[in-house]
Amino acid sequence: MLASFLSMEPKWALAGLLGLFSGGALVLGAVIGYRVSLSGRTIAAIMSFGAGVLISALCFELMEEAYKKGGLPASACGFAAGAVIYSAANWILSRYGAKHRKRSRGAHSSGDDTEDNGAAIAVGALLDGIPESIAIGLSMLDGTGVSTVTVAAIFISNIPEGLSSSAGMKRNGRSAGFIFGIWLAIAFASGVAALAGYSVFATMSDEVRAATTAVAAGAILAMIADTMIPEAFAETHDLAGLITAAGFLCAFALSMYESSQCCCPQP
Fold it and tell me: Residue 146 in contact with residue 22, Cβ under 8 Å?
């Protein structure tokens, strides 16, 4: 059933659905965070694992593919640009209350946050999700089909963000309509971004695709270092490294298995 779904046509529709699926993890996390009281360490452990999975995906899926298609100059410049753009945007958002949007314990407001931090958190989540979703669409342009590792990595990493942020916004008095409205809108935007990643760049040169893929990878790594790892470490500092390594290893194993299935002829 999964194989038939991943081979569906047209591909642009599949890209949009997969982006919606990965963004839907934000909604899933939001429902859990709103309805279930989980410990900060549990949420942070999930975030640590998700960080490891994402690091593996951007290394062995995104950057490797960018290098193969466009060479070192295109992939290196794109990667650096993605990291700079994300870091600058994240710095601006942090001044408006989105600095700890992935925090798993305590309210998201702090003394240096503005009152409207719910909107800032939402924009921050959108900033986190757009490069990831575009990467899903781009991963489908090489003719080998969607990268299940990339989709799985983004899905896993989105759950703790929706979980922790919705729990924080609930404590700050935000209504259920406001919270779930935000995450549903971002999930939809993720689907649109994935569709754009496939459709807009379908006619572009390999160098442009490579640079764009690398931009997404650079933004994702900056996001991991700026938000996911610090917030995970704050709660699971004694186990954060081990859990992150476990996530990396799981994604690496899946990536190698996927590569072997693509390269080895089926009997």
Answer: no
Q: φ, ψ for residue 119 (rounded to 5)?
A: -65, -40
Q: Residue 111: CB partners within 8 Å, gap ≥ 6?
A: none
Look up the pTM and report it: 0.80
- Residues in CB range of 265: below 8 A, 6 or more apart: none
Residue 21 token pair: 């699926």
Alpha helices, H only, 140-175: 148-171
169/117 Cα distance (integer angstroms): 9
CA max distance for the chain: 64
- Check: CB of residue 160 under 8 Å from CB of residue 45: no
- At 111 the three-state DSSP class reads coil
Neighbouring C-beta atoms of residue 80, cutoff 10 Å:
13
Nearest one of 96, 84, 95 to 221, comparing CA atoms: 84
The per-residue pLDDT for range 130-150, each reduced to its tens digit, is 888 888 888 787 655 567 778
pLDDT, tens digit (0-9, with 9 covering 90-100), for 62-114: 898 889 888 999 999 999 999 999 999 888 887 776 666 666 554 444 444 43
Cis-peptide into 10, omega within 30 deg = yes
Distance CA 262, CA 127 (A): 32
Q: Which residues contact 83 (CB under 8 A, 6 or more apart)?
A: 218, 219, 221, 222
- One-letter amino acid for residue 61 of the chain: E
CA nearest neighbour of 255 among 137, 131, 139: 139
Task: Enumerate residues 6+ apart whose C-beta is below 8 A from 238.
Answer: none
Rounded-to-5 percentages of helix, strand, coil across the chain: 80, 0, 20
